[in-house]
Batch of 3 targets.
Target 1
Amino acid sequence: MLLLLSISLQPTPADALETCVPQQINPNEPHEFRPNPGQICTPEIPQAARLTCGTDLVAQKTVNAARGGTGCSPANPTVGQTVTCTRDLSVDVPISIGLAGLELPIAGVASNTQVSDTLNPAQKMSQYTSWYLQGVKEDGTNAKALADYMNGIINSTGGIGNLKLLSPVFNIPSFQTPGLFAAIEAAGAKFSELDAFAGNTYTLEGRKAYDWYADFLKGKADQYGKKVIFTEFGDFATINTQPDNRPDVVATMKQEFDRTMSDGNIESALYFNALGDNPGFGGFRLSPDELRAITQGAPRRAGINSASPVNGGGGFATRVADLGLGWTLEIAYNPSDKDAVVSAFNTAIARGLTPILRICAGDACEFSDPAVYAQFLRDIAPRINGTFWAIAGPNEPDIETWVSGTSSVQTDQFSFLGPIKKLVSDTVIDQKKTDLINAAVAGTAYNQIIGYVYHNAVIPRLEAKNLLQQNPRQTDIQRIRLTDMANHLNPAYIEGDQEALKWYILWRDMPFSQTVDLPGEIFATTSLADANVKNARLTITSTLADFRVAFPHLVEDDQMSQLLQAVFRPLGVAETSGFSEPNAVDYSTVNRATPFNTNYCDLRETYSNRGDSLETTRTITGNFSFTKTVTYSYTHGEKDANGKLLTTIDVDVSGPVSVFARNPLSIDNIYDRLVGGPSAIFKAIFPNPDQTLGGIKDLPAAAPISMNCGSGCTVKPGNQEGRKAEVFFAHWGSVLTYFHDKLQKALDPLGRTSAGPNPPGGGGLSCTMPITSCGPVNWNLGLFDTYFNAYNSDNNSSWSLIKEPWAQQLIGQTAGWSCPQFVSTLWLEESGGSAIGQYDLGCIYHLDGHRALTSDHRGGPADFPTYTAFKNHYEPILKDQLACLRSYIEPIGEDFQTFMCQYSGETDADPTKPFRQCDTFTNNPNFPVNMCKIGGEVGIATPN
């Protein structure tokens, strides 16, 4: 919904969005799929656009109008007589349009990495065109499996009095841990029911152990009100130094231990392999004197992680106790370790220690079934003579993968792909990469970062960003840009050659299309939708830059759709065959002051989900003035409470502003290639959509904005009753419906399942009711009085068709083809019995496609010269709505679920059937809720 408030009646100059030249780089790009948000760096992209219709936003203000005078009839009324006046009234109001948070739905999500990291790969691939076409990163773990494992232990061990549960042990310094924690949290992990969080942290890479914790896990522990136990704690400086010959290292470790213990939320810190029990980690061994020196400030809150299988003889616990420390950790590997754990833990408890149980290491574990581990804990707990702790999951789940459903961490950008790798040859993709690099060298493509190198090894982007955040002047990290690849095109893999391997990985991970933004606008003009409005003028007080928005993903979506289309294009058909660019507009010459008629813009079916920012936080401001011819009535001779003759009357005056989006033409091209054009890949796989799907609908997506018109003024959508202020983006609803929901299921990567296209929040149908056969309506039910009174007070109305005998009779006559009680339920749900909305029964188009009559709400019986005139005005409208409804009911028959899916405009789950099928209601989630509620009160609905 591009709102552009006109500055003048002259064409607006072709001033550009805030642009950059391709050589002008962003040193810290936020995301590989959107490296330079809001900057338009591709001059070869045509600055043209397509106008997408939007809702009229109607400003309504109460004006004090004169009683009597020119334009009123009768001219000489008697006291008590009704006088009707028709005259021009003027309104002048400030307008503000808020664009903050405006997103492009469906196309992608790359601006906020915290948002994108909480989506699993299947969700990204299913819901976002850019992710789906370009490829997504595998998150490395199955967050739901981890959450389910931990929850299973919590649920199965409740009531064990001497058992305390720890979270899986989070690898705190790992760049992957924050995203992993968020994903586990989103998967329903019961962190609040744990006794404490467990984490591993070290001083490494120039950062102190506690600082790593302060940056991440501390906030989560505070959020959940939990203590923290460091099951591994230490300093990597011990690896390259010798015990009892490193006073500086020991002094530093003592300072860090004392600092950590000053945090009262830290329960304990255990030094990993400090006694050297595991020779594979000998670099972490500390001598007894070093341990005493380091922990002397709080020895009972310190401990040792054995890094080894449980010592059933109690020898490990004895050595820890002899050092004067307070905690131990040992590892069980299978259920047969019960006796060893009991013996070791009882020894520890007898010596005043608190033992912690860890299970397994690596990629395999005999406790991978949570039921097995829970039974193990239930078996040992009664035999242990005091309190012990157990870790409810793996140690460092970003690395250990033994929980069912997890997989090794992958950092390759294309380890999880959409159909590109399955359908397009490596030769084609390699050439695309070469073309992109050459364009960057020539200065016609943005020279984006494609990877990071640390000590001659490629490292993941987030890890590099963490290191750079610690030390912005870090010289060991190289940012590799497109131009750096110019001498390394399609490099070979040479085993054992680190330099060759570096360039091979960078080449494999780099994108193969440009990831830059395209310009667009949000704009508004005066509207021709209301013929009674004249002299409308919209004057903008903000600058042109306030209208500007930056469209993400369209360049790569367009290029990727070309690749896909080429796979399915019939022989002999040109690549651009069938392309349409409807309503193409010269970006530089559009007169934004020209009024638009949006009566055609009836967008009942729109789609939206979480999408990417259009990179604007602005508010468009201006002033809207207009004159409107209005008709109002009053009773001649009325007086106020003090007996003074009333000479004026308050009249509501409203005028519309048309709201539009100016979209880059790439939107049309993407839609044509993927869905709508004659050579679209959707049509290549579903060659007869008119027969199998009932045709392809061109559906937009919607995103909310805000609008205000000052004190004493209200704003509402004028031609979309019930909608909030929205921006509409052409075609994206169809891309979601046909490309993602239907086509993608045929192209999912092997072993992957689509998450489904619908955003969260859609509900099911909680009731059933007859459609074609039932008894008469009981109009004496209090429900009908409630609706009549509610709509009269809420909408400043003094009438409703619910109370009109002729309207009730029309509903009753539907018994010949429908259930009157069902029709009355729908009548109340859609319009409160014709009190609100343009369509009394919510029916906009008859099934044959012709437009249904709309209601202009001219008022009740008192607002017409005679009751007959009132009836003659509204009766044809209600009759046409009933005929429109009948056109849907008769073909569907007694199938309430199908009717609700069809009438709600939900995504069709089964295109082989003639009417829409659905399981959830996402497009209009309130519709089934309200129908079942009202139907129950009418007496017709039966709960499922």
Note: The longest helix spans residues 867-892.
Target 2
Amino acid sequence: MSTITSRIGRRSFLKFGALAGAFGTVGALASDEAIRTATETELKEAHAGSKIVKTICCYCSVGCGVKAEVKDGVWIRQEVAQDHPISRGGHCCKGADMIDRYRAINRLKHPIEKVGGKWQRVSWESSLDKIATKLGDLREKFGPDSVMFIGSSKVSNECEYYIRKFTAFFGTNNIDNQARICHSPTVAGVANTWGYGAMTNPVQDMQNSKLVLVMGANPAVNHPIAMQHILTGRECNGGKLVVIDPRYTKTAAKSDLFVRIRPGTDIPFVYGLIRILRDEKLYDKKFVDDRVYGIDEIFKECDQYTPEVVANICQCEAEEVVKVARLLAATKPGTLIWAMGYTQHTIGSSNTRIGPILQLLLGNVGINGGGTNILRGHDNVQGASDMGCLANELPGYYGVAESSWKYYAGQWEVDYEWLKNRFKSPEMMTKVGNSLSLFPFAVLDEENAKYNGGTPIKAIVVIGNGISTVALTHKVKEALEKAELVVFVDPFVADAAVIPDKNDNLFVLPASTQIENSGITVNTSRVAQWRFQVVEPLYESWQDQKILFELAKRLGFYEEYTRSLKKFGGVEAWPDCATRELSKACKPIGLQGWQPERIQSHTLNWHLFDTVSTEGSGAHAGEYYGLPWPCWTDTHCGSPVLYDIKKPVSKGGMGFRNRFGLEHNGVSQLAAKGSFPVGSPIKEGYAQITGDNIESLGIKLTAEEREIVKGKTWTTDDSGIINKKAIEAGLVPYGNARARCIVWEFIDPVPKHREGLHSPRTDLIDKYPAIADKTGHFRVDVRYRSEQTAKDWSKEFPISIVSGRIVEHMGTGTETRASKYLAELAPEMYIEIHPHTAAAYGVSDRDYIWIYGTNGGKIKVRAFYSYTILPNQAFMPQVFSGWWSGVSLADRFPDGTVPNALGENSNQVASYGYDQQTSCPESKISLVRIERAA
């Protein structure tokens, strides 16, 4: 035995143990055949004949690798991907539980319709017939804008693209996804600062940072594997970690310096830093002079923010502001991390500008270890934004202007006039649609109909989205109750399906999970990975594209909807055909290099890529893992670090994007002389490349090429000639410009501090007022100043709430709370309050308390003592649902679909408020009052 056991691995040993137990039960253990030498296959595999399928985790945006062991079509074991260049064998508890999410017994197993207040099992054919008939009737009677479509940040790029295309063919821009309520201010603010609204550097690159500045994020909980890269850099690179937050988080517990600031005061704090950098001449003057426009306006604005003023507004110490500023200047390269603590404010889109401006001042942009590492939420929320699953975008960040629609009519191979006639009017075709955050007001308030083609929203179709995370959940409930048709498409029963008191015309349709489908998922670093299908869909669940295709057939536009797929292999070649289509169409972010074979090969061979630089070796030498966009051509390597001029364009180098014109107020918007990517023939800034100016930039074309690109730009040239010729010449297709500190199209051209609508500091409201109320903001009238001054909110509601995730759950918790293991780890909703506050209210640790919000909502939760927050603050997870104002909704779920953990939804008590540019909810500044429950 000693000879045999010394030659077998742990897996085979355990297998033999199982075999021995099996033989023992039949009395055959002493038989000569009971124990034998393992075969070579058995030594390698735990289950003979099984196969390993590589796929990607379905939870957060880090993009960890998963190895699924499959036998006879059944996922039997989840393996650790030790060789994955991002996760490096790591998983958080959610990722480790992927296999149980897929095989959860409380999944939605078949289509269900609510009839007369009771759930009834129905067929796919019957449910789709009824849904399509109702949608068609509403479209005919009230117009296509009577329907609101809500897309997903969970499905593949290919499905995201086809969700947006579906709504276009239905005839409305009423389409949005989770990005609206988390990082829409990021996209708006960052894109309007330096050209692209995305994370600049790979997650792994934080290992190169000498300083990591975290504001409004908690990666130790929300992105644990990203946190590993931060800690690795700290250990191996001597990096510093600085955390600025209202709450002493688990990330703060690992920090070298923690500064506590009041929620919603990020801008004064950063202006305080900028003032010190300016006054002590600690900023990178050459970088600013060569590559930045408008810094003088920032310097004027920062004049008012002395350390003492900042200390008063932020409720920190003046010395802390000085200490952080000097540390930032002395410790480079440094990166800035933010998440929803930065964005979910009325001035979120100003926060996401002031952060990049700070990095520009420090010269921390376009370098390894620098940039803005904006940690996004769901696994494919970056892809959802890229694919235009938004009220104000088409795929590839084309706006909804007439020129964009004409471009996409060509991409989709339909007549432009036909497409235009799908909309109620040309005006509605080019009008930004309703948003995920504000759509309830388009259902409930008749006065908003004038912005929506003359009709309230009558039907809501939700595809893979837990809409109970929207602030003012009671308004979502009322909207669902008033709507004439509500449809949820999801692997699990969404909490929003059981919240409304709605008896009829409510459908829940079982979509397959992500690992029962395949296609591209894009992580927070702009990295494309191929999520290979692990198994066939369980039960009666359908893949997302099948549901879309079947609805399109019933609504009469299937032939037009799928026409453009034919040149790439047709519907039968899904998803590769859709990958080719979207990569060809999405030119502004440079997806032309994202051919399915390339992405698939990267995922299959992820072991060939470095875990820090992400550079490939062997067959993938010269490429970066996942071909981070822009990936300009089918031979381009990808661009891991945006705006890096120390690399040639062919190796991922680029300047800032020429997106804002050639000059402003008589000042050139192009980069200064001497500022250019390595190898560029033009040693200064230049405009974006078009068919009309390409030869004036020194690029030679043949007569045939000249004719092909005539009148085209790099964003409309289907031939690829402009991109190819530009890259070969060492030029960036989008030009070489300056980043800008002034966004003249915004309400606040320079970022300004404005107190939250429900600020506890009423003494500051008049000095830092909210903007005037807005009309027709994403088709809805929105209150700002009138809400802020309606009353002294803090007298009745003295406690400031900070909300966030917990490591065990995310989103609405619909998926994670379905897991029995994750539910055991985090079984109930709670609130963290300071012991001094608890004592003042007569509350003991673990007592139940009532929480009342400014909007009239109330929830009942258990109180936990915590010193991580101040006495006038509290923390609540935002990942629970299934209770409503003290009452369990478990009996409202269809049989067999109740989650393993239920709890009150924190958004029931979130205060009213929306970002002034993007309508992202202001859920990080909410006031409440508490009472001890009887």
Note: The chain has 33 helices and 32 strands.
Target 3
Amino acid sequence: MKTGRHGKLRLSLAAAGALSLAFGLAVGACTSVDRSIVNPDPETLAVSASNGYLSPPYPVFPRGNTLMQSLPDSDSQVRQFLSFYGGVSGVSFPDLMRDLLVRLPNRNLDIAHNGLNVSSGDFNSSLVCQSCHDGDWKASGTDVGNMMFWSQPSVQDLYPNPPPNSLAANWSLFGDWSASIKALAARDPIFLAQVENTRNLSPNQPEQVDNLCLRCHSPLGQRQAQRDGNLFSHYMLYSTPTGSNYNNPFPEQPYAHSKYSVYGALGRDGVSCSSCHSTSPAGGLPWNGTDYTVFYGSDTQSVYGSGVSNRLKDLGDTTQPPPFPFTSSMNTRPGTVVAPDSDLNIAPMAAAGLSLETATTQGSSQPYLRDATICGSCHVVVLPKVPDKYSSSLTIQQALSRGGYSKPASCPPSQTNFTGNFLTDPCVALAYEQTTYFEWLNSSYATQTASCLTCHMQLGTQTDTTAGSLDVAQVNGDLTKFYGSDTGLTPRQYNRHTLLGINLFVHEMFQQFPDILGIEYYLKDGSLIPPYLQDLSILNKTGNLVLNPGAESGNANGWVAEGSQIQAVRSEQGSINPNHGQYFFTVGGNSGGKVTLSFDVSQYADIIGQGDGTVSVTWGAASYCSTGNPCPALVLSQDSGGGSQLVNNTPGTWTALQGALSLSRGTRNLTLTLPNGSRVDDLFLALQFPVGSVASLKDAKRQYAVAQNLLNAEQSILDLAVNTSKGEYNPKVPAMKAYVSPPTVSGSNLKVDVTLTNNVGHKFPSGAGFRRAFIQLEVLDGGGNVLWASGQPNPWGAICDGVCNSDGGNYLPSEFTTNPQALQPHYQVITRQSQAQIYEVRVVNDYNQLTSTELQQFKVVKDNRILPLGWVPPSSRKPSEQLLGLNLQQLAALTEPESSVLGNNDTSITDDPDYTAAHAPGVDHITYQIPLSAVSGWQSVRARVNYQTIPPSYLSARFKEALLDGTGKPTTPGPAMSRMIYMTSRLNTQTGLKYTPTQQSQPVDFMNNWTMVLGEWTQSAN
């Protein structure tokens, strides 16, 4: 295989494909790899051995180019799953058919754009960005495209079913992002089911539930709707344009109608490109380096109104939380695209109706887009603690009588009833549902400059260029209307946009049910043409013909002055700043003076000449004029017909103006006129041709297959779990490492010491509060039979009391309890099989019952998640310590481990030195004392780190909420919950994905018994 135009280009990527991943093969990191694999032809492959481990520069596809297939309805595992959960949850499941499930619209319908008007206030969806930032869809032969790289041929030979063509991996910005959990956030079947359930539990304000939850999972759709005075409804996710060929499943729901299709497109786009790349100060760049409301939000950006801090603490609390509302409250500026680099070619973005700017931090060489503050915007989740049956008729005394509700410090003494709006009610407390960002800030990782990007957007380096530099956009003939002659690209540091954690279970749902979740974003099988470019409104439209629309070149070249002058200025009168970018145009001079800019459109003469009005011009600008004076009109004229003018009727602020002009037959020139007194920014002018005037785009004939992006993401998830937890390829440092000391005999007991090491920059597990991890400790005889077990899961992930029975029915009572005192406490010593070390955060509702419902998390009763290295307790922080705009002592108090499982005097965590050290060691030590009488003939001890993103207790709670009404009678599940029931029961966990821990020679299944096995260590008796 040849490398095509890349020649000897070789990548040594920190997140490159791990050779330790294979489909049922023990392909180890160091010892079990065939030498023909690790010493390939240097023309096609490269090896980096800087740390003694292979870091191959190519992706590995364990299943070739085939997505994992779900279980058929007739599979016995489906019946067993439903039978188990029917029993533990006390519900009856409906018969569901795949063809009758409500499907989400395909991603090729997620087209939303600003019409080239950068000042419109409209967001663009990711399909606009795909046009330039995807892999090269015009590649031919073996000439792979920009940011696309070959799969390793030696590993390809090991596939059970090799693909017919060579495989290339799309590691472009869009290719990586499009299969990330960020991109899929609004299609997440678990999330959507929980939103649906929560709506039903809050019938007084169902749309407010949607608007709140989708603020994080569909930020652009929610913000666009909010700007237009609408609440964002989850029904909008099903809204598509008229004629889209998508059958609206909710015709009776107004929010699902085509009227809201733009919101739907932006909403389904998940955490889209502009969620991060339009985050900038309201007044424009540079960011001053001190106003953190840009990222964390302020009262004006908060759905909770003012007084957030007092709603985050109970009466009498001494800990004052930060004043920021977080929960995706960052300041976004539609039309702005901020990048972390300087000296960029802004012309293509300007032609596409966007303002490309450097994310500059005042007084710093580090652009803020490389900081973790962008991630912190969404990864501090603040949610209200809504009492059951909340409404304006519920009295505060009634809520207090339940035992779990307490008044927040913001609640006025005179208020007796709730207001009926839980978002702004001062007597509805707020709580931190997720604090991943706080956990990182209060660890040693933050001070060592290891940011979120280090692990979740790992840096790629090229051996023959400046480290990490790569052209991150493509140029081809079909993009001429955007690039024109400005095809120069500045090589940039290349951070892969993988943006993943290790939520393999939800990711498998996207692989196994792509038809239901609407994953397809190409219009035709085998076609890689971006759908946006094929949209008729774009295909038949030129790019912006104004070459310097925002004066960003710092000059006014091309303009002709008549009794006037035009300048590109950074500000005027000390208070007028650009609408976008660093400059805007100002026109001044004698009374009656003007400036003009001409456009030669003779190249379109044939189309214009087909008849009057068949070609039109859309044009406009952002205009600013002083109060007290009439605003001058902007004029567009043509050389053989009438003209058009636009007037700003809102002086004192930048106002977006837009108009249209039909071109007369014979028109060859257009002239834009700005009279004296004009201040304009973001000028745009584009020709719109009749449908059919422009030839359709065509794919190139390629001799290779582009691997499905979901498979790239799968590989990145597995790498992050076991090979690249700290941003560098090293199988000796998995995300969670288990170590078993040599067992010893102490009296009548077998003593086993287990150490778990947390190698990630936050608590483990982190993120959604219902995730958990646990130790599976087993004593085995010489035949590998389990003699004694703590933490062994049954086929559905429920932890058994000892070795699981054949039916898995001997699960621990703590697995499905609602009583917080029946939970497994935090252990330092385990002596019985009925005890299991489970790392989790558990909360109770206002009745003091355990819950995983997002809006009813009133009090944490257990949080023993393993701390990150260097986490500092509040007592070791000084009151004045600050980092990235936040008080570290406050963050320490807000992320402190705690437990009341054993009662008010529970010391299980405060007595554990791993959790109370002045600087956390990032580990947990636990001792197992096992009666020798129970393990006669033992030969080895095995410890596993099991991780569950969808634990059994969570699933059981959702099933109960959906299938039983408030009186306990059976009810019909909603469409999202029906999808979740179908997908969880048919999820095929026999993926064949394996890896070999460095300490042992035998491979381990990544997915086993509805858990993800993150680490294993076997210690023999000898």
Note: DSSP finds 29 helices and 38 strands in the chain.
